[in-house]
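Project outcomes to date are best conveyed with an example. Our students and postdoctoral researchers have been running inverse folding experiments weekly, and each run begins with a structure described purely in tokens. The record below, which covers 209 residues, was selected by the lab manager from last quarter's runs and is presented without edits.
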């Protein structure tokens, strides 16, 4: 094992699980946030888990990121000085939101996503939906109808209608759904992480069982 943060250690290269530096929890690496330290000493979020360097792993929650920041845990894990922005949690939330919306956009362009309540109803009833989307700023009645419609399907309520709208080529989108497949699985994984940052009580990922 090497002490250099610029190279993977043995555990980093082989094990399917990683330890959160703040909580000590050991979880599959796909459920954790990964960071690396750049050549200039700056902390770089590696949400795609593809950047070279020794990974620093955190549970995907705003409070955990803020704890790591306050206790200077990134520098301890890297064994060197690390430059970390004070608004790291906000930056991660924005990156995760972008990754989720990109996945929805890819699904739409692949013909695997629709919007509009009636279209969503039709897809769900035909068994062609894996994930249901509901704008978190929609009316409570509308959100409850979508939850009921989804049944045992995953329901994502993490985005405002204005965030979902451009993905579907419109100003606002209140309801949507994604067909089964790799993009739906990718969206669920990204949304599960984003839920740890949009913790104001209006965002959720439900019914994933």
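After processing, the design step wrote out the following sequence:
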């Amino acid at each position: 094992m090497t002490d250099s943060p610029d190279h993977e250690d043995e555990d980093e290269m082989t094990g399917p699980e990683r330890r959160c530096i703040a909580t000590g929890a050991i979880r599959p690496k796909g459920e954790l946030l990964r960071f690396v330290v750049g050549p200039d000493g700056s902390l770089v979020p590696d949400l795609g888990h593809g950047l070279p360097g020794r990974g620093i792993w955190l549970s995907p929650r705003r409070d955990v990121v803020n704890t790591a920041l306050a206790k200077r845990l990134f520098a301890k894990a890297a064994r060197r000085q690390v430059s970390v922005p004070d608004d790291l949690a906000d930056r991660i939330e924005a990156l995760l939101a972008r990754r989720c919306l990109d996945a929805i956009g890819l699904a739409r362009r692949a013909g695997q996503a629709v919007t509009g309540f009636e279209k969503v109803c039709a897809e769900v009833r035909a068994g062609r939906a894996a994930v249901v989307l509901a704008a978190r700023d929609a009316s409570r009645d509308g959100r409850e109808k979508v939850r009921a419609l989804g049944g045992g399907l995953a329901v994502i309520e993490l985005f405002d209608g204005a965030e979902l709208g451009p993905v579907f080529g419109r100003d606002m989108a209140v309801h949507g759904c994604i067909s089964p497949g790799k993009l739906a699985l990718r969206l669920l994984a990204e949304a599960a992480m984003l839920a740890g940052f949009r913790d104001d009580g209006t965002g959720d990922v439900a019914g994933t069982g």
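Helices lie at 10-14, 62-70, 73-78, 88-109, 117-125, 140-150, 161-167, 182-194. Residues 88-109 form the longest helix (22 residues). The training component of this project remains on track.
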